[in-house]
Amino acid sequence: MKTKSMFTAFTFKALIVITCIMVGFVGFPKCDAQSIVGKWNSLAVKQFLGPKGATAYGKQVLETKVETTGSSVNEFKSDHTWVTKSTSINDSKVLTLTGTWSLTGNQLQMKLDPKQEDTRYNPKKDAITPNTTISITGNTMIWNTLYPDSKMVNKIEITFIRM
What we know:
The protein has 163 residues and is an alpha+beta fold. 22% of the residues lie in helices and 46% in strands.
């Protein structure tokens, strides 16, 4: 009889431990590929200038609030397609760009669709954006893109907020 009660106590403890482990896994956040899905409004752009850029502008960093130049909204869809809609402050026409995206760790790769609404974008039909490192904290996403071969701009940092 003691053996049966010890077995029951062991089974009960094992069930509690297994339940705690399962509940613990539910608390993990979504993977990076899912956290980028949604609409993101561009807030600011920082350009870290190279030697030529610093000489031309007289400073190392150019900072621009997107609202002073227009607007730009990126939508990343769960099927790994994206749409960017942007406007210029002096032009009410909306420019729409489309493509596909992939996220490996914190490295974002975006590829333009071969056919764009405006043929000036992706004229060779094979445009791929430079690898971009992203970080997401709460509702804020920051992109960092390096341009090691450019003498004008070494890095561009774009800040977004989830809509």
